[in-house]
Amino acid sequence: MIKVLTIKNNKSEAIINEIGAYLEKLTLNGKNILLPGNIINPTHGGMAILIPFANRIKGAEYEFNGKKYFLKKNKEGNAIHGLVLDKKFSILKANKDSVSLSYTLEDEGYPTRLEIEVKYSIGNSNLETEFFITNNGNSNAPLVVGAHPYFLIEGYWKINPKKVKKCLLFNKIPNGEFIYYEIEGNIDYDDCFYIGNMVELSSDNINLQIETTDMPYFQIYTGVKGAVALEPMSGIPDAYHNKIGLYIIKPGEKKYYSFIISLK
To answer: Which SUPFAM superfamilies match (predicted)?
Structure first.
């Protein structure tokens, strides 16, 4: 049986599924924040966890330390959204306002064994997501950590800061170059940006802030009317090839990332 956990703090509530450590629903100060989602299509709503890479890997293959690794391909022929979306996490600790889940990643498409802990903590009007990553294997490995929150919006939406750096893409894959760019609301995006450790999303119904630790890149995706995915990432898509934001985690090393979603 799949376990679903609820954490609460006054008028705020988060519902977390043990599959993928997936955030199914988030209510902050009585307001629904996320497009409804489920574990069948976890990146179509809610908030999916993207580890050990975020978004696309070109050709679903890469070379690391002289060895080639192969990943599952999507219909475009790329790998996408990491290796833990459908994996069952163990519940380490749960109480009224926080929960910690863990998973040991061992995959033929990845060079080492990773211990992944995801901790959710809910406050009066915010949710903190923390990642504790440990390399318990014998090899160095490439690491990018990300999340895929899909926020409900109404009417015109905008991002602050507006002036950012945008990844240049070819067939949805970054080519490793950036241009200075002003984000305009109410147009379609499936693009990555360097924004920094704080970003605000506002529309007629909502004003949100995301503050990150070591996750300065964001993917903006507008695949559904009335919602915007604003995805914090430690590195950009295809980082296994372009190396931008890529971290090499060594055997025995621990790495920490986090972000806080706050209702303003």
So the answer is: Galactose mutarotase-like (SSF74650)
Tell me which CATH code domain 4-263 carries: 2.70.98.10
DSSP output for 31-83:
EE-B----SSSGGGSSEEEE-SS-SEEGGGEEEETTEEEE----TTSSEES-S
Q: Which residues of the chain have pLDDT under 70?
A: none
pLDDT at 223: 87
Each residue's pLDDT tens digit, 31-66:
999 999 999 999 999 999 999 999 999 999 999 999
Q: Both tokens of residue 20?
A: 């993928």
The rounded distance, in Å, linking the Cα atoms of 186 and 207 is 16
Domain residue limits, the chain? 4-263
Strands 207-213 and 198-202: antiparallel
In terms of pTM, does the model score above 0.85? yes
d(CA 235, CA 112) in angstroms, rounded, equals 19
pLDDT of residue 186: 83
Q: What gap in Å lies between CA 181 and CA 206, rounded to an integer?
A: 24
